[in-house]
Amino acid sequence: MTLLSATALNASLGSRKVLHDVSLSLEAGHLAALVGPNGAGKTTLLRALAGLIPSDGEVRIAGDALASLQLRERAKRFAYLPQGHMVHWPLPARDIVALGRYPHGATDPARLSPRDIEAVLRAMQAVDVIEFSDRRVTELSGGERSRVALARVLAVEAPVILADEPTASLDPRHQIDVMQKLRNVADTGVLVIVVTHDLGLAARFADHVLVLSDGRLAAQGAPDEALSENVLANVFRISAYRAEFQREAVIVPWADV
Amino acid sequence: MSVQDFALAAEVAARRRWGVTAALLALVVLLLVLSLGIGPVRLSPLAVIEALFGGGSDVAQVIVREIRLPRTILAFAIGGILGLSGAALQGLLRNPLASPSLFGAPQSAAFGAVLVIALGLADVRSYALPVVAIIAAFGSVFALLAIAGRNAGLLILILAGLAISSFAGAATALVMNLSSNPFVVLEIAFWLLGSLEDRSVQHVALALPFIIAGAAVLLSQANAFRALTLGEEAAQSLGVDVGRLRLLVITGVALGVGGAVAVTGTIGFIGLVAPHLMRPLIGHDPARLLVPSALTGSALLLAADIAVRIIPSTSDIKVGVLTSIIGVPFFLYLIMRERRALGGGVA
Q1: Which one of B233, B278, B282 makes the best mutation probe of the A interface by having the most chain A beta carbons within 10 Å?
Q2: Is B18 helix (H, G, I), strand (E, B) or coil?
Q3: Could you give all domains of chain B from N- to C-terminal order, each with its CATH number?
């Protein structure tokens, strides 16, 4: 069943048009990987879907037009994880995760209702960060901090999660962990859209791959269709080594030098 | 971890913060009483309290209620709004070096006020002075945030602040330059130094409504500052209207700082210092820092205003001079501490 759809989405940054007529339709319970070369408009598409930037065209979430929803209502439906896991003040991890309850009116982490606390604890358990609940996020390692950021997004308990390069700057093990956690979340019926540069992770974990090139959707579909020889050659100017390992698809990008 | 454990940990932290706030409140009350007692005629705290509530000698009553009370109320309110403005700007910009005086807000407000004085429109019963000062302060902070843009780094904010305060200073100098009346120039010069001396009930009536309005606006946005810890984009995705928040903070700061400058001249650096003093005690949560920073600002200005009355000197030291003399080295210390962030440029 379609949860999120976009029709003829156009968006500009300043005078530069970044998205051209993007149309898509995504289902609940899917993990969609959004891939494309640098500057293709991946982050802009994510922002436009969440209504964080103005765009032309129509976005519908669970039947409602995004434009008709108040800011607070949008915040309950889209949990957005920006690039870089930015935290500007050294707050304890629990306070950061508790910010996920902000859209639900729980704006003060010291005064959460039992329901909000349960949601926060569930989120922290899901990504295994309970042990550093009292530590300041700025003192955590990159991997730990990315999990806290993920917990904050999960605590929103939104039907759609938009994650912008959640695996960037993580070591291979943590990259796989984060993708597996997102996969688990998708399996509970949430639509997860992940921007990534790692075609291997996309091929292994996604149900659906969206390939963006110069602001246009160049391909979309199941990983093996969307990441075909042709698409890799035309969009990324690469070829790929393909294999199967432990019954999972493996793609290793390759370019002759 | 159970729900009870989680709630308990939050409560323990909250209790500690309340302790700090209560201690601050006690300190402010103590300084209020001291401020009412100190001057050419020294009064004991008991005599002050007696006079305040209509007891004691007539002389003591006049000294406390008519001469020293307005000055003390202004020191309390202005110190408070400066501390609050500093904490709010630091929260909005996620930046520990943000403060009204580094952004040129008091300097611009002073320019507006100087213009009114030079044009001969100033009158202790007229709202022209605070209104023009507020408009000028609003213009300066608005310009600063417009120039710096979203997610501005430390360097851009400070350079833009420097440019704006220099411009306001130059414009003020121009007004003094063009003013033909030497008495007006002298009045402006003294007033620019920033002082709480000889302030009357009229001055309180002139400034207080704006200060209270500014404080109300800033305090109402507390939780949004907390969400901004995650950056503007994430805050917006949590339901914070960041554009509206910016406008509200600019308005709140302008109302408070403009109203304050209109009656005392420029008193700098309290907004920068107060939140820093509170972070080790309260933590870094920008929402929780607002009230303690305001109280710290009140305590600082009350203490400075007591100090200028105690320090023996041949002519009066102005309180604005004192806060800057203490504030600027503190600013340098902060720059040293933030050296890495500054060296990193526009990050």
Answers
A1: B233
A2: helix
A3: 68-343 (1.10.3470.10)
